[in-house]
Design a protein that fits this description.
Elements (H helix, E strand, L loop, with lengths): L2 H12 L9 E6 L10 H15 L3 E7 L6 H4 L2 E2 L6 E5 L2 E11 L6 E6 L1 H4 L16 H19 L5 E5 L6 H6 L12 E5 L10
Parallel strand pairs: 1-2, 1-7, 2-6, 7-8
Antiparallel strand pairs: 3-5, 4-5, 5-6
Length: 203
Amino acid sequence: CNFAKCTSLFLRAAKIQIGMPGKKILYITTEMYPYQEESSMAATVNRMALKMHHEGNDVRVFMPRFGLISERKFQLHEVIRLSGMNIIINDLDQPLIIKVASLPGERLQVYFIDNEEYFKRKQYYFDDEGHPFEDNNERAVFFARGVIETIKKLNWVPDVIHLNGWMSSLIPIYLKTYYKDDSYFKDTKIVLSVYNEEDLKLN
C-alpha cells in the first residue's frame, strides 16, 4: 500500500468524496513521520493524514508513545483530563497516560498512548537480539483499549477510523465484541490498511 493507492482505497472504502470536507477522521497507527523517520508506513500515514487535514477535515491521530520518541524534541505534554484511567491486563491495573503534540509545522493533533511498563523501553517491537518482545500481545491490547476509551472521553465521534499497523488491528475486534452494546461508534466506518515493510518503498 503506497501513498496514492492507500489514499484512493481509503476514500473509496470510507465513501468520502474529494471536495466534500468536514468529516471527522481518526488515524490509528503504530508509526508516523517524523516520530519514526525510516518507516514506509510512517511516511504514508503522515501524507494521508495531512492530505485529509488540508482538505478541511477534522483529523486526529493516535499512536503509542514509544520510548524512542523524544518528548522534548516534539513537545509532548500530558493531557491530565484524559489520563488517570487504569486498564486491566492479566488482572493487573495498568495506568493509561495520554500525551499530545501538534505535528511539527501543522495544526494537526497527535495523541500518544503511554504506559511505563509497555512503552518506556527504547525499542519498538524487538529486543536488542532481534526477538519480538514477549508482551507484544499485551502492549497491543493496552493500546487498543486505551485508544477506544480515550476517544470516548474526548466526546469526539469519528466518521471514519483508518487503522495502520498490527497493533491497531485489534480495535475492530474489540468494537465488535467487548463494546458491541456500546452505541458510541455505531455509525463509524472502519478502514484497515495492510503494509509489507520489506517490499514497500518510501515513494
